[in-house]
Task: structure prediction
Amino acid sequence: MKSELYSLRMRASRGEKHISGAERLLEYSLLEDATSVMLKRALNHVRGKAEKICFKLQPVPSRQVSKRNLLNLTTFEVADWPQGRALAAQLIGNLGVKSSIVQEAMAQLAGGPSPAGEAMRGAMLVSTETGQRLEPDKTRGVRVSRMDLDKDAGQRVEALLTDMGLNNPRVIEAWTLASKVALYPQVVAALCWSDDPDYITGYVASAQNGNQRVIRLKEAGSEIGGRIFFVRPGGDLNDLISHLQYEPVLFDAPSH
Ligand code: COA
Ligand code: AMP
Result:
């Protein structure tokens, strides 16, 4: 493997149940440490004990990698998750998405958006024009991949997060993923809350207003989480999905 960068991905599962996943996009010399951190995470996860842990390593030619800035990060305090959901709906509405479309999509996410009424394996895509689901497979959804912090940005980003009291890998991973999604002009907004039962913070992300964390977006203990990407009409959907899944992007700190 002679490429300068590698996509390193870990997935832990027990039977059909997804326990945890993580990914990095990094250079050869950092692979060993990153793999060991992922292994620790897989072995100690709140969703339970893993039976199988798979690692994948794929070279990514560095000439294919785009360099971008993370979205600005803000946090909204709310008293409880219903207030958090109302705020999230308002934040998406502020971006011009019709309230009825936002409410319907959020209700689907809350009820388990897969046809079996469970969490999906990736994100829902929802048309901002019709409210229709656009992802080709409604059990799988679309999984964003091949993004990370740029090696030289790590310290800057961690210093920023330390100032905000938020310096932990989960925030960095969610922020990086959200920043990649917001790169594509077809995406008006992304909404996320986790399926980890102990993680109740979620966010609305958009190129226009940045990554807006909402500290309570679901009830503690719930394993139903997910992501919705609100997509404006007019672009090539297959092209968007391909970029979300495969375009490698490294991020530096926000530009202002
Ligand atoms: N949830 C449920 N099942 C998953 C899954 C997930 N997140 N990721 C993979 N799988 C299962 C699916 O059955 C999948 O088959 P599918 O493509 O038909 O859905 C199968 O594993 C193989 O998936 P594949 O796409 O080959 O996995 P991968 O090697 O590319 O790894 C992960 C994907 C695990 C790295 C990715 O899902 C992940 O969790 N990335 C971390 C994302 C992140 O940083 N999130 C921010 C956290 S806040
Ligand atoms: P998490 O933030 O990892 O708890 O994931 C919450 C939900 O987001 C999952 O239930 C999936 O529906 C979805 N999801 C997980 N990983 C991805 C990804 N890489 N891209 C898009 N959606 C994802």
